[in-house]
Each structure stands twice: as structure tokens, then as C-alpha cells.
Specification:
Blueprint lengths: L5 E9 L4 E9 L17 E10 L7 E6 L3 E5 L5 H15 L8 E6 L10 E2 L4 H6 L9 H14 L4 E6 L9 H4 L6 H6 L8 H13 L6 E7 L3 E7 L2 E5 L22 H9 L5 H8 L2 H6 L5 H4 L5 H25 L4 E5 H6 L1 H9 L10 H12 L5 E2 L2 H4 E5 L5 E4 L3 H13 L1
Parallel strand pairs: 1-6, 6-8, 9-12, 12-15
Antiparallel strand pairs: 1-2, 2-3, 3-4, 3-13, 4-5, 7-8, 9-10, 10-11, 14-15
Helix pairs in contact: 1-3, 6-16, 11-13, 13-14
The chain binds adenosine-5'-diphosphate (ADP).
């Protein structure tokens, strides 16, 4: 693409039971593409529509769509992602008065394997290569691929671009990437740390640069249903807590994170478990859910008073504090700490408890600012250009500043795709 004109981009993020979908416009206009190659290119994208479908394949389906002047939400069940995506595209047509005209469809792919360190403009042979990645992240990549195939069918004229979560971590040095197992497994099977949530980390790294906050040593905690931590040095990832799969690292909603590596073998024997059963337990029945026995949902968990829910919360926080200590060591110090993701952005309790364990680093929470952060983000209007100041809220004022950041993976996906093809 070379001429400067209005480009429409959709950004599609297919999760296990949800789809997040946004439409952006980029007006090259007078300035052409000159900015899109820099971080400031994020500011050239205008969000015109945002849409979410949740609980796909269940009886509790929910649909939400919002444009600048209009929004709609309702309970609506979809049997699968295909049906949901067809519905979204039809709906977005309504908002655009006279049908959709999309130039780029940008798809989030969780795992890029060894092939993809940059976005990919999809052509014929790529689908087979992309499908080979399914085995690396079986809970995520097959759905990302399904989304791509459906959108290709619905919007055959659009350029399909994949943006990979693992790409941001391509900079992790080999000594941090390798597991201390026979090195031939790395050479033969590419077994090493890939890391995830890279799109969110890239967004945060960019938004800080745009805001003029250049921290040499930054730790970002992305805490949602899945959760990870990243050590970022001069804007690039040098280590992260998720590994070859998104199961490693922190305790999560339903995932165990780090455990004794012998436990899967021991559990298989004790439970006389079938093939894949232990993997399923560690992915879907552990973490906050496994300990509390009640819920994987953090918002729900912190309201509970029973002892196992309290224990789950204590463990969750303790493990984050330990990881931050580890990464402060990897970075040889710390210049700023960031919380993001559904929990990191919204829970003042979480931030306060974690920061209380980090006073030795010079971290000090500001109670008032911390408590007001969620409200600050609720007031955020996502339409039009991204609001840099509105995306960042400082919540700690010690020697090492602490921030809550409203991450925007959809705009980062659109930006990376556009930047790649421009
Ligand atoms: P995903 O990893 O699926 O994208 P999110 O980033 O949306 O997840 O985060 C979901 C988590 O955020 C859930 O555990 C939810 O309870 C939690 N969460 C959302 N809002 C709040 C809130 N106000 N306080 C505490 N936790 C919250």
C-alpha cells in the first residue's frame, strides 16, 4: 500500500468463548504514512466501533456493540464462533450505513512459534503453516485460526494480517529463553520460552513512549483470567513469566502457573488419570478456582469471606510479589511498575496488597489515587483517537512510580497490521 487515503481496519480477537472486535479508520491524508512507522502512529487511528460477544456456545451468551453515538447490548446465544462472527459483520454493516468496506482484517494470534517474529500478511500456503501452531497453544490458536478462516470467507477482498502475541518476546536472550533440559530439544523441537500477552506489552511500551515517560527498567503485570509479568529493558522484553505455553508462571484464574515439574507425573499416578487429564486439571481446574473451590473470577473472589477464597487471594498476591522481585533482579533495579489487564487495571485491593510487599524497592502506593483508578478508566471514551493521558493513571508515588494502565490490545493489533503493510 502506498497512496495516502482512508484505510479501514478491523481488529479481531477470538478467545475461547469470546470475541472482541473493533473497527478503526486511518486517514493517511496530508501526512501519508510517515507517522505510522513510529509509536505516534497509534494516534493516527480512530476507533469507530467496538463490539464484544461473550459466552459463545453456552446459554448465557451476551452481545454488545457500541459506536460513537449509538450502543446496543442484549443476551444472545451463538452456537459457535462462525455464527457469532457472521452476526457481528452484519451488525457492523448497519452502523456503517450501507455496508462494510474493510481494507485490512487484523487477527490476534496467541502463538507465532519459531516462524513469526513479525506480523504476517496471509496468502494461500500460510494457512497450513498457521495450523501447525495449533499444537503449541491448543486453547487459543485453533480459535484464532478459525476466526481468520471465517473472516476470509466473509470479507475476501480484505487483506488478512496476523499479529502474534509471542512476537514481542523475540528479544529475550537465549540464556533466559532456554529451559535447563537437554539443549537438543531446543534445536530439534524449538522448546524454549515464547512468552505471551506481547500485544498488551507492546501497547504499554508504546503508550509510555508517546506520553514521554521513558523508563529504562520497567516491570509490567498483565493480570486478567490469564496472567503474566514482563521485564522490559529500554522498551524490549528481556524476560517474561509465561513460557513454551501460557501455563507457566503466575497463578491464574484456572491455571496453576509454576509448580514442581514432577507433579504432573505424580498426579497422573495418584489419580490414575487418563491421557490429557492432568493437563486439563492444571489448565482449567487449578489457580484461583482450584484453591478457592468456588470461583476463578477475581472480582467475585475478593468479596468472599470463606477461608479457601482468602487463601487463594493470599497465594495469588504472594506469587506476584515473588515474580516482581525476580524481575527487579533480572533488570538490576526498577524504574517503574505497571498493572494492567482486567484485574491489574480495576482492582485497587490487588495493587495495594502487592505494593505493600515491595517497599524495599521504593514502591509506595498512594491510597487515594489507587482507589480512584477504576473510576478513571470507566470514564474513558474509547472512540476517536486514543487518549494517552486517559490510558495511564499513576497510583504510586514512591521512588519507583506505580501505574495502572488501561491496555488496548485491539488498537495495537490494528496498528501493527497497518504498520506492517503500509
Ligand atoms: P482475559 O484474560 O480473559 O482477557 P480480563 O483482562 O478481561 O481477562 O480480566 C478478567 C478478570 O478481571 C476477571 O477475573 C475479573 O473478575 C477481573 N475484574 C474485572 N473487573 C474487576 C474489578 N472491578 N475488580 C476486580 N477484578 C476485576
Amino acid at each position: 500500500m502506498s497512496d495516502a487515503k482512508k484505510i479501514k481496519i478491523i481488529s479481531i480477537n477470538c478467545g475461547s468463548s469470546s470475541i472482541k472486535f473493533s473497527v478503526f479508520e486511518y486517514r493517511g491524508g496530508r501526512r501519508g504514512y510517515e507517522n505510522i512507522e513510529k509509536q505516534r502512529g497509534l494516534l493516527e487511528l480512530n476507533r469507530v466501533l467496538s463490539c464484544k460477544i461473550e459466552e459463545i456456545g453456552t446459554e448465557f451468551g451476551y452481545f454488545y456493540v457500541s459506536g460513537k453515538n449509538k450502543s446496543e447490548s442484549k443476551d444472545l446465544n451463538f452456537k459457535d464462533h462462525g455464527q457469532a462472527l457472521y452476526y457481528i459483520v452484519k451488525k457492523t454493516g448497519l452502523f456503517e450505513n450501507g455496508g462494510i468496506d474493510i481494507n485490512i482484517a487484523a487477527h490476534r494470534f496467541v502463538h507465532g512459534g519459531k516462524y513469526y517474529r513479525k506480523p504476517l500478511a496471509v496468502s494461500g500456503g500460510d494457512i497450513k503453516k498457521l495450523s501447525e501452531l495449533n499444537a503449541l497453544a491448543p486453547l487459543h490458536n485453533p480459535l484464532n485460526l478459525k476466526g481468520l478462516e471465517i473472516i476470509k470467507e466473509i470479507l475476501p477482498e480484505a487483506l488478512q494480517v496476523c499479529v502474534f502475541d509471542t512476537a514481542f518476546h523475540g528479544s529475550i536472550p537465549l540464556y533466559a529463553k532456554l529451559y535447563p533440559i537437554p539443549i537438543d530439544y531446543y534445536f530439534k523441537y524449538d522448546i524454549g520460552k515464547y512468552g505471551f500477552h506481547g500485544i498488551s506489552y507492546s501497547f504499554i511500551s508504546n503508550i509510555f513512549k508517546i506520553a514521554g515517560k521513558k523508563f529504562k527498567r520497567l516491570i509490567v503485570c498483565h493480570l486478567g483470567n490469564g496472567a503474566s509479568i514482563c521485564a522490559i529493558k529500554n522498551g524490549i522484553s528481556i524476560d517474561t513469566s509465561m513460557g513454551y505455553t501460557p501455563l507457566e508462571g503466575l497463578m491464574m484464574g484456572t491455571r496453576s502457573g509454576n509448580i514442581d515439574p514432577a507433579l504432573p507425573f505424580i498426579l497422573k499416578e495418584k489419580l490414575d488419570a487418563a491421557e490429557g487429564e492432568v493437563y486439563d486439571i492444571l489448565n482449567k481446574k487449578s489457580g484461583l478456582l482450584g484453591i478457592s473451590k468456588k470461583t476463578y473470577d477475581f472480582k467475585e473472589l475478593i468479596k468472599r469471606k470463606d477461608k479457601y477464597s482468602k487463601l487463594a487471594l493470599k497465594m495469588y498476591i504472594y506469587r506476584i510479589i515473588k515474580f516482581i522481585g525476580q524481575y527487579a533482579a533480572s533488570l538490576n533495579g526498577l524504574d517503574a511498575l505497571v498493572f494492567t489487564g482486567g484485574i491489574g487495571e480495576n482492582s485497587d485491593v490487588l495493587r495495594k496488597e502487592v505494593c505493600a510487599g515491595l517497599s524495599y524497592l521504593g514502591v509506595k502506593i498512594d491510597e487515594k489515587k489507587n482507589e480512584s483508578a477504576a473510576k478513571y478508566f470507566q470514564a474513558y471514551n474509547p472512540f476517536g483517537r486514543i487518549k494517552v493521558a486517559g490510558s495511564i493513571k499513576q497510583v504510586g508515588t514512591g521512588a519507583v512510580p506505580v501505574f495502572a494502565v488501561h491496555t488496548d490490545e485491539e488498537i495495537q493489533i490494528a496498528y501493527e497490521a497497518l504498520n506492517f503493510v503500509a
